[in-house]
Amino acid sequence: MRDMGGVRGAESCSRTPFRSAPWGEIISVGAAEWPVRQVMRGSEEKPMVVDRRWDSIFCSGRTASYPKGQRVFLKGQPGGSVLRVVKGWVLVTEPNPDGTDTFLEIRGRGQLIGEASAFSGGVRNANVEAICKTIVQVVESGRFLADVERRDLMKDLLVHAQELHRQSNVRVGARGLGVRSSLSWLLLDLARTAGEPLISGIPQKTLAFALGVTPRTLSTAVSMLERRDAISVRWPAIRIRDERALRQLARCGGD
Fold first, then answer.
1. What are the mean pLDDT values of the chain's consecutive 10-residue runs (255 residues total)?
2. Could you tell me the maximum CA-CA distance found in the chain, to the nearest angstrom?
3. Which residues sit opposite 93 in a β-bridge?
């Protein structure tokens, strides 16, 4: 697994004193008020449910804030900690020898970063950057692994990792159906991560990079989804208005 696996969860249940550190600003953050269940109009799927199984591991961890564009860590850096996103989004990429980056994943609220290096005891195996202002909870790798084992959560962690890989494979397969299908699947995944129909904080340029298209091509696809009343957009926020319609567009393909 890469340092990008995720599991959904709720936000911090504790407060930590303010101080600073080289890897990010540690701040005081109370429990965020997120909806436990959300249902989008026209949805035939189960309501989005916030997974709270990981609260006990991260609620007493320190909390760090990263501004937009700040690197959380780089591939090859020492591990030593596992992070869970409390608010915001991070971009996970693979650096190439020619200086370019390959898109891997977008990770958001409740999802983990850095658990792969915790399991391997090795270095980070991907670059992670804050897409917007992002708040994370941090626990040391040893404590994370001990708590996962003690609370018998290893199976749950592996199941979630498999689900994330399945979603990624679906999105990759959707690329063969066209930009509209790829965008629809990506928005559905991001809404599930957010735990609500509103996807906020991801710029148009980042979504275009994730889909491997130009911002202009993305803009055309977004406009089509808006005309179908599947979404409404006010960058950098996208609201899913009709999940059933978006799923139909995701499956039928077309540019």
1. 39 31 31 36 50 79 97 96 95 96 92 90 96 97 92 82 76 78 94 93 96 95 97 97 95 73
2. 51
3. 103, 127
